[in-house]
Amino acid sequence: MSETTQGNNAAGKRARLLRSAASMSVITLLSRVLGLLREQIRAHYLGTSLASDAFGLAFQIPNLLRRLVAEGAMSAGFIPVLSDVEEREGRAGAIRFANRYFNLVLVVLSGVTAVGMLGASTIVSLFVLIGGRAVPPEAVELTTSLTRWMFPYIAFVSFAAVAQGVLNTYRIFWVSAASSVVMNLAIIGGAVLLVGVVDQPVYGFAIGVLVAGVLQFAVQVPFVFKLGFKWKPDFQVGPGVRKALWLLVPTLFGAGVYQINVLVSQAIAWGLGSGAVSSLQYSSRLLELTLGVFAVAISTVVLPSLSREAAAGNLDEVRATTMYAVRLSCFVCFPMAAALFLLRAETASLLFERGAYKASSTSMTAYAMGFHLIGLVHIALGRIFVPVFYAFKDTKTPVLVAFVAMFVNIGLCYGLAGPLGHGGIALANTGSALVQTALLAFLLGRHTGPLSDDTTGRSLLLSGLATVAACGVVLAMTGPLLDGHAGTSLALPYLLVLTSAVATFLATCWLLRHPELTEVVDLIRRRRRS
Predict the structure, then answer these.
(1) 501-529 pLDDT tens trace
(2) Does any domain span residue 159?
(3) The pTM is what?
(4) Could you tell me if residue 95 is inside a domain?
(5) Is 274 domain-assigned?
(6) Could you give the angle at the alpha carbon of 211 between the alpha carbons of 210 and 214, nearest 5°?
């Protein structure tokens, strides 16, 4: 194959990746925006009160189990094996494997849900023990009740994850992404419609979570059926299921390590006083919103491509795809992280400061945001590197790295919570994520060879220079336009500052002939002509 043909193929692959990521980004961004709206409604009704902390902790438990059992399992175990079975045995074999896997999930998660509901008080008591500080009895009682209400969410969302795995295997990404939109709409609906009906407004949120789990599964089922997948009561554990479980075990340990990080962080925060848990979660929501704009979409659409390239032994293509994903993520995350850091107090005030959420809550959230945002870029890169290991069916290395990060996080949490309060917990999360991403990048070379090329260094330098220019505009405009404003009165001046910063970033990239901006513009032009 000629160099010209190879170059055209590479350009076409990059364009397809960019288009997939862009379409995923739209849906993922909508989901993140609705998630932010959900948090705004929570802030309006609950603020940073004891009830808000209780809901945050109670929802954290099934939500973390969702990430442990559902999301990690699908990426590391289910999707690669389903792809292999489809290749070797055709659609009939794939349907048989998917049925057996779903039925195993059905049995196991039904048991987990029952145990969680019965043992809710023990789980919450463990939180208090880990935190090492006294928690008011009324806070413990409310958190236990909410945990019991919301625990069935884990079962339904795990069923949804199996459906998502089927759809993603056949490159249908938007449906599963849209199910997150449905989840947020359900929680918002429950909060708004039930807040005046139930004795405590927080139970409206809890009921919304339960409904959300059911709907996340229900909306995907028709699309799974369209592919020919039908449910049958086949509870055999065949070779495909055993292989998926074998791949899954290391990932469960790795994901479990991450969940321990989060649980310890939340438990320590709970003992720091009312509002610490809520303000950390509001800050994390803004971080996830930023990551959801592009980084999450990139990591989702890149896995099937990387799996095929790795299976075929095309290491050059694996390296090229990985480095392209790195460049795209940095192109987006550099300016976002910098601008939000400079505008963290104004951002928290504009988005949340109304109802039960007062200026003191804004101060607490902005304090946590400053430490969280330091880690945005390397968290985004970590989400790119992990799927590369999965593509090589290496689930052990991310687990070992996660163990190291866990000990770093726990040590930093206990060490920094005293002098820095809840900001120390945010900084601990950032520090451990930095260690994790650095180790992943270093160890990835065992599979791919050195991750370097002639393009990435220049691209990152140009993204950095354009970010500096945008930050200069933010600093120059913040005082004259934003001082003296709070809450919704910040909307117009904040928008003007942010728009000016984005325009400066893009204009600088254009003047510097930034390769990522050039590719995006060329793609838009080609789509208009077609």
Answers:
(1) 999 999 999 999 888 787 766 655 654 55
(2) yes
(3) 0.76
(4) yes
(5) no
(6) 95
